[in-house]
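Feature request disguised as a bug: please show the residue count (589) next to Ubiquinone biosynthesis protein in the output. Example input:
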Amino acid sequence: MSLVAQGDFDEVIPSLNDALMRHDFEHLREKFFAALSAGTYSSWDMLSWILGRIDDTSITPSLELEIFFNEAVELLSESLTTKEFVLVLLGEIESSQGLRVVTFSLPFLEKCATSLGLSDSCKVLPIFTSIRSKLHSFLSHMSMSRRSNSVKIFSDLTSRLGTSFVTIFTSNTKKTDLSLYTEELLYYFSEALYFVNTTDESLPIFHNFLRVLHLCSDGLYSQCYEIFRHVLVNSDIGSPPSKFTDANRAWLHVLGLCLTSDSERPYWPTVLTKKHQLTFFVSVSSPYVQKIADTLAKGSPLSILQVKSLIRTQEHILCLASKVHACLTTDWWSPFPTSLIKNLESISKHPISSVKLPVEVKNCISVIESLLSASSITARCQVFSGLVSRSLEPFHCGIRAHVITLFKDFLHKTWLKVQDIGLGALILEEQHLGEVNVTLPFDSSYLRAMCDSIFQYPLPNCDNSVYDQFSWLMAALNLAIYVSIRTKSVSAVPCTDEVKQIARNVSLAFSRPDAKGKSTMRTHFLDPLVSDVVSVSNRYKMAEREYAEKPDPSTIAPGAPSLQECQINLLRFRLLMDTISRVGEFPVN
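Example output, currently without the count:
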């Protein structure tokens, strides 16, 4: 709806619309500029008509039409005061359906804001508020089917906005309290910029917004550090982070952009180590990731913004962790990193409806892996212990399988490192990192506890069938096979007494003889697993025979598994039994 009622200009509109629909731009220009020259029609009405046509999606944009609209609006602006001109533009932006009017009006609003000056906040601030409101509305109603095209349109507009804002704020010559505009600028970091992909081409967009925010705040580092200090002082790990506001999310975004982009160094102290930067970001992001996990735990789906902000946060952690290698000690794993890991696990365990694993779920696993890689061996031992135990709370077959596989790789690499440099040198490396009580994955007490957590069947409080536990069972069996082969190879070839002792400790941990001398690997894991597999296999074999004996499907008992289901399950069970048979003995001599 226009700000003013239509007057005599209504008489001219039909002929203008007709020329526009026929793409008769010569007639359109002639009619419009004749009406403008006559001076008998309201400039407000004429400007409103143009902006309405720009908003009309049935009109195909063209360069010739764009030139006409720009010339017409430029001339109309001369017959209105700056305040009047801004009021008409903002009124039409508010009533527009998409982003066309905002995009078109931006150069004119930039000129008006520069002319008025940022000190005239009563007139200039509404420009920022109106644009923010329109962008928020657009993003809130973005449909799934048109999202990819909408994001491109939005990215183009955001790029123009960043450039315009730089012009407006750098043209400010008067001493002005720019903090009045901070909230408006923070909006872009709390929502809008999450919809802009972080590519080499888009980096200037983020740079422009950071540059302007830096001018309006007391410095980006000081503002981010204030959030960091607030988190350290006020956050209660485990309690709902309800006070993590939109402004906090904005500063988290700012922090991540500053820490991961070389172009933002002017806004950030270069003396901070890579480890400190990672600590900084993990501490600030931990409450936000907890808030996301809490939302899912309540059964509420994540909004598009929550998904995008989670992915951006994960990307920043991955980038920062990649710059740190094997130096995060057990002391570093304070409540914040530990809470982050737990909540990432929780998010990754949440049921998904799509066949393809969502990016945010993949990233949860990648972040956990990257933080493990950035940690000392002692710290990794501590983290793996928690990961294995939490894979049962609640049980998640895929997560448990992946954690066991990661642990197998960790054990293997550490074992090889000892063979290369010696046990004493490895312990010394850990101590130089700051570890006081060094733990290695093949230490007897540690590995025995890990084996107790991994090699147990059936799992406590797990109602899943043996078929549904296939992936973690295979991962555990492959770990046992690896250790069996490796310990046998050590005992079969000449090696140092130190290496032989490590192999013996590992064998003892895996065989885990009980008070009667029986291997708990067999009594607690392999034997009950074999018994269950045989029992379930027999039921499927009986069902398979029934199909062979009764070709008529109508004679099959209701609820019986299909023939294909029987064949697939039996194939898996044969693979499982074959793998079990390959688990050899663990030499302890």
